[in-house]
Amino acid sequence: MLELRPNCEGCDKDLPSTSSEACICTYECTFCRSCVENLLNNVCPNCGGGFSSRPIRPAKEHRKGISLKNQPASTNRVNTKYTIQEIKEFSNALKNTNPESR
Fold it and tell me: One Pfam family for this entry, by name (predicted)?
């Protein structure tokens, strides 16, 4: 089950569970759409993969025990350990390779 991290690992913007701006990689690294497009060039600075929109967990319980209320989003904030310069160098090296070919 997705952790639904509460913030962008790049700029620390709040990304609540209902946010349509949250993007994740296959390892669930979480960044806002602005960082993905303008800083990362759709290259995860941790794994080198691409990003997809993070799904929104239903708030309403449509099936017993299955909802945001029963599986709440994480409250643990995560921030990247890389500098902006390191991120730019890494993403520039991979940005012209399609994510499925990285």
Answer: DUF1272
Total-model pTM: 0.92
CA distance 102 to 99: 5
Token pair of 10 as six digits: 């790049």
**Which backbone phi and psi does 62 adopt, to 5 degrees?**
-85, -30
Could you report the per-residue pLDDT of 52-73, keeping only the tens digit for each?
A: 999 999 999 999 999 999 999 9
Coil/strand/helix, residue 69: coil
Q: Quick one: the chain helix, strand, coil %, rounded to 5? A: 20, 10, 70
Q: What DSSP character marks residue 101?
A: G
Give me the pLDDT at residue 53, please.
98
Q: How many CB atoms lie within 10 A of CB 32?
A: 22
